[in-house]
């Protein structure tokens, strides 16, 4: 089920375009496709308030339009950097909206109370708290005004409900910002009378957001995006550490949580075929209010427009879904080199250790997926072995992408045990738009690089 959405978006032109799809005819076209959406940013060391020295980001769509989104921003009134990856489903509306709004809700939540107060009495807007980088979209005017009103109510309530004597709990503040934005999306769809808000509410988005201030790293996640820390151990080997747990049917604790919130009579219907109510793969998400609203709300707001099929089967005791994130904390040390945030389009084809090796080796000028190993085939001729070595050598000679996120996407599509397979790359980038989603998902990646000297010289 897909719902329409209207954003002002940029366009790019490269290679031969067919139905808004670039059909590669050469290695140049392949590189043009892979680099079209890449972005890199460096942070000057002087007066920097966080351990991040730079970041690389990129996105390759499979769905048309792409259902993933990303946002990065620096605090304007406090120390810190916020970076988010958003993976949409049932259309890209929810992911696009959440990507532009969530980090600003977080920024307003995490700054000192006096700075928030001063900004609001000066007529501050959602853009007053965070300087977003690489922001190429904007809302239509009607939605922009609606969203500003919701944000103003949120910040006023932050001021009213804050208490100086209470301890500063960053995890709780992040959790509250997630939940409040999700509530605002619901209220806007129910009460604003603006049709696009219904598109946002009925599509959905999972997300992972990293907050870095000095050597403190917090990761807030709901759904099945992943955050993986790349570090070097005492033996000089790369180590991959997952900093969030995916909320899906493979997470037994998450399944138990959902089952515990509903009557035992629904035990066999809540999760079927590893999906919520047999339909939804992520077990936490923004939007998706047809898994959250009461039955009578669905009948009044949704069924007249989309029919009875919009109501999930066995829908008895909603809500079945939440946008509440898990928040994990990690204190960065000089051994921690980078953090990879990505949608599941990357993790479907590369595991965390492979990703860390690729990024780590990219940073020192290497481009191999893993050491050469023979296939399990019992008999291998010298000619076959020679062809494998030639293919591996060709992959090793591929020019290294300056942007490590682009490098990851290249290997996610074309990487093999024997190096980079350009033929595979061409094939996956040439698939018609109506079938490409059967072979690969949208991929969105942001990699934060940590400054070892900064971390080494921080006061104890």
Model description:
- There is one protein chain.
- With 460 residues, the chain is α+β, with helices and mostly antiparallel strands.
- It is built from 14 helices and 21 strands.
- Helix 2 packs parallel to helix 4 (141-161).
Short characterization:
The chain is α+β, with helices and mostly antiparallel strands and 460 residues long.
Q: What is the distance, rounded to the nearest whole angstrom, between the alpha carbons of the first and last residues?
A: 53 Å
Radius of gyration (Å): 23 Å
The secondary-structure class comes to: alpha+beta
Ranges where pLDDT stays below 50 over 5 or more residues in a row are 1-19
Total E-strand runs: 21
Largest sheet: 7 strands, antiparallel
Relative helix content: 25-40%
Q: Helix tally?
A: 14
Tell me the overall shape: globular
Q: How much β-strand is present in the residues?
A: 15-25%
Mean pLDDT across all amino acids: 88
